[in-house]
Amino acid sequence: MKKIQLILFLLSINSFVGLAQSKKTPNPPAPGFDLAGSDARAVQIADEVMAAMGGRTAWDGTQLIAWNFDSVRKIIWDKWSGDVRVDNLHDDQTVLLNINNDMGRVYRHGEEVLIADSVTKYVKQGKRNWINDSFWLLMPFRLKDAGVTLKYLGAEATQMGKPADVLQVSFKNGSLMPGARYKIWVDKKSHLVSQWAHFQKPTDQQPAFILPWDDYQQYSNILLSSNRGDHDITDIMIFTGLPGEVFSDFTRIDISRYPATK
């Protein structure tokens, strides 16, 4: 009888520990996140950022995101399927691809590109565009992505004089952005990213730029920021559904006629 009671007691302890751990990790890292190389304080701040942006559940439940990057490209991304549409805004080039399998189709100069090497070239270009443009919009949600290492650099005011905690975000070889390094300022009160800097090489001492990260607005269940100084992010929309031809037809559709989630 005592043996049975002991087993039940141990099972209850394990259940309690498991529940406590699940409550402590509402924002689990992506497979491949460099947890061992990251500072515990930096990881904690990244989790606070996720919570301030709407939370992991809201982010995971966000399916379709559309935005214009710097008046150069329009991106429509289905997070759940990996389908992406990249429309150049200064010419007729459109790339339809899936970022999970790197398969895609290309339209430019009035016709679909059919030469295999050219398709591969422009699909790779389209994926690079998506990597860049999505990071400029969605970086706060991606602080624990595969290949990321987080370091806590201490407290430092932004250029606007706001108190902030500063993180270094670096990417390991083999990640989507190998060698990239960023410095981000997280507001001490709101726990939102308020400023960022980009270093072109891991060894650079001076950043290529320091830009604001502000003008937050609510889109569906998450917050998104559009102000990057001289680089505009406009026409941000979130949808729960769009016609399939958005990712299969080169004809450019005015998606603003479909109801975006508020």
TrEMBL record:
<keyword id="KW-0732">Signal</keyword>
<feature type="signal peptide">
    <location>
        <begin position="1"/>
        <end position="20"/>
    </location>
</feature>
<protein>
    <recommendedName>
        <fullName>Outer membrane lipoprotein-sorting protein</fullName>
    </recommendedName>
</protein>
